[in-house]
């Protein structure tokens, strides 16, 4: 059927529409720019007293941020790490963590709230439409941007409202002190604590599995025995700190297989005692190859030759394992003849 065969009254409604048939008029440009809404002034724009109130509110928020930062520092210095308090409805929490989180949260929130309140009540809220342009702006556009920035700074009132400016600068200057204070938790200087362990002359070598003193005959050729010093108990509050430096491993090697002269002198009947702490990052060494006399750290595969002064033969470890000089007391038990001659575990910056 052609268009000529369609009755005239069957055509679609015209652009003018037909009220009787419910037709709707079609706009000339359905995507026309609606433009910006009519600007309505805020109360702060027409009432200077309201503007002053907003200024004081912003200044109060910035001042509260400064006080919260001071509270953060005071809490960090004064509250003991092990103090526990009850806070409803959270329950029992660390007093230090709670105080630090609360004060730092208030400090950051007040800076943000102050900036938002400043922008919404005192800075210019006139919307400006600007056409898109190429990324590489010409000189006149750059000049316009700088002028717009200057106009924005002027409209923000930062120069005319020194109370807001000064309190904002104070809040922003104090907040970073919270991060600076946290640097204290990097730890105190090692001093001599990493150079010494609880081993000393005459201390019995205790089997860490049986908790009994060791005799030479208890250490068999090809076996790996883990030990710790006499007097160190697992229920002591500093047990983990001390065992992390004093953990020992004993291996019996045929004297003729020991290549290092000092290692042979510091051993007893081929029993050598070395630190169990890897010199890479401090992992406990636990794997032993009895045919090669190599021990392997399971963390990063550092390998040490116990028949040659526990020198590093593979992996990222930086130096050999420290050896403990041992002997036998009058009762036939293995004992230490002193402390390690060098610090155990990984190297540290002031080791020298």
UniProtKB/TrEMBL annotation:
<feature type="compositionally biased region" description="Basic and acidic residues">
    <location>
        <begin position="7"/>
        <end position="20"/>
    </location>
</feature>
<feature type="transmembrane region" description="Helical">
    <location>
        <begin position="58"/>
        <end position="79"/>
    </location>
</feature>
<feature type="transmembrane region" description="Helical">
    <location>
        <begin position="99"/>
        <end position="119"/>
    </location>
</feature>
<keyword id="KW-1133">Transmembrane helix</keyword>
<comment type="similarity">
    <text>Belongs to the Rieske iron-sulfur protein family.</text>
</comment>
<feature type="region of interest" description="Disordered">
    <location>
        <begin position="1"/>
        <end position="20"/>
    </location>
</feature>
<keyword id="KW-1015">Disulfide bond</keyword>
<feature type="domain" description="Rieske">
    <location>
        <begin position="240"/>
        <end position="335"/>
    </location>
</feature>
<dbReference type="InterPro" id="IPR036922">
    <property type="entry name" value="Rieske_2Fe-2S_sf"/>
</dbReference>
<keyword id="KW-0813">Transport</keyword>
<keyword id="KW-0249">Electron transport</keyword>
<keyword id="KW-1003">Cell membrane</keyword>
<dbReference type="Pfam" id="PF19297">
    <property type="entry name" value="QcrA_N"/>
</dbReference>
<keyword id="KW-0560">Oxidoreductase</keyword>
<dbReference type="GO" id="GO:0005886">
    <property type="term" value="C:plasma membrane"/>
</dbReference>
<dbReference type="InterPro" id="IPR045603">
    <property type="entry name" value="QcrA_N"/>
</dbReference>
<dbReference type="GO" id="GO:0046872">
    <property type="term" value="F:metal ion binding"/>
</dbReference>
<keyword id="KW-0472">Membrane</keyword>
<comment type="function">
    <text>Iron-sulfur subunit of the cytochrome bc1 complex, an essential component of the respiratory electron transport chain required for ATP synthesis. The bc1 complex catalyzes the oxidation of menaquinol and the reduction of cytochrome c in the respiratory chain. The bc1 complex operates through a Q-cycle mechanism that couples electron transfer to generation of the proton gradient that drives ATP synthesis.</text>
</comment>
<keyword id="KW-0411">Iron-sulfur</keyword>
<keyword id="KW-0679">Respiratory chain</keyword>
<comment type="subunit">
    <text>The cytochrome bc1 complex is composed of a cytochrome b (QcrB), the Rieske iron-sulfur protein (QcrA) and a diheme cytochrome c (QcrC) subunit.</text>
</comment>
<dbReference type="Pfam" id="PF00355">
    <property type="entry name" value="Rieske"/>
</dbReference>
<protein>
    <recommendedName>
        <fullName>Cytochrome bc1 complex Rieske iron-sulfur subunit</fullName>
    </recommendedName>
</protein>
<keyword id="KW-0001">2Fe-2S</keyword>
<keyword id="KW-0408">Iron</keyword>
<dbReference type="GO" id="GO:0004497">
    <property type="term" value="F:monooxygenase activity"/>
</dbReference>
<dbReference type="InterPro" id="IPR014349">
    <property type="entry name" value="Rieske_Fe-S_prot"/>
</dbReference>
<dbReference type="InterPro" id="IPR017941">
    <property type="entry name" value="Rieske_2Fe-2S"/>
</dbReference>
<dbReference type="GO" id="GO:0016705">
    <property type="term" value="F:oxidoreductase activity, acting on paired donors, with incorporation or reduction of molecular oxygen"/>
</dbReference>
<keyword id="KW-0479">Metal-binding</keyword>
<dbReference type="GO" id="GO:0051537">
    <property type="term" value="F:2 iron, 2 sulfur cluster binding"/>
</dbReference>
<keyword id="KW-0812">Transmembrane</keyword>
């Amino acid at each position: 059927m052609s268009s000529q065969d369609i009755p005239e009254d069957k055509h679609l409604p015209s652009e003018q529409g037909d009220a009787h048939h419910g037709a709707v008029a079609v706009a000339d440009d359905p995507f026309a720019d609606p433009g910006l809404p009519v600007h309505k002034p805020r109360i702060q724009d027409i009432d200077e007293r309201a503007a002053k109130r907003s200024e004081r509110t912003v200044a109060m928020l910035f001042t509260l941020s400064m006080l919260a930062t001071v509270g953060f520092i005071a809490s960090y210095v004064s509250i003991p790490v092990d103090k526990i308090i009850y806070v409803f409805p959270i329950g029992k929490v660390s007093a230090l963590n709670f105080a630090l989180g609360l004060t730092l949260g208030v400090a950051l929130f007040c800076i943000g709230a102050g900036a938002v309140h400043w922008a919404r009540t005192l800075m210019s809220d006139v919307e400006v439409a600007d056409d898109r342009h190429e990324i590489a702006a010409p000189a006149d556009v750059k000049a316009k941007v700088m002028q717009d920035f200057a106009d924005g700074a002027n409209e923000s009132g930062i120069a005319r409202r020194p109370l807001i400016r000064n309190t904002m600068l104070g809040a922003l200057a104090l907040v970073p002190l919270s991060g600076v204070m946290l640097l204290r938790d990097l730890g105190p200087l090692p001093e001599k604590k990493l150079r010494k362990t609880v081993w000393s002359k005459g201390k019995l070598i205790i089997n860490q599995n049986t908790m009994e003193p060791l005799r030479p005959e208890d250490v068999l050729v090809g076996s790996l025995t883990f030990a710790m010093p006499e007097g160190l108990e697992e229920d002591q509050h500093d047990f983990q700190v001390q065992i992390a430096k004093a953990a020992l491993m004993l291996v019996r090697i045929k004297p003729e297989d020991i290549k290092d002269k000092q290692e042979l002198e510091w051993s007893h009947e081929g029993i050598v005692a070395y630190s169990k702490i890897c010199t890479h990052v401090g992992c406990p060494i636990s794997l032993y190859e009895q045919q090669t006399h190599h021990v392997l750290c399971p963390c990063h595969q550092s390998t040490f030759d116990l028949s040659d002064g526990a020198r590093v033969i593979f992996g990222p470890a930086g130096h050999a394992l420290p050896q403990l000089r041992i002997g036998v007391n009058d009762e036939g038990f293995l004992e230490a003849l002193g402390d390690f001659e060098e610090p155990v575990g990984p190297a540290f910056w002031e080791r020298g």
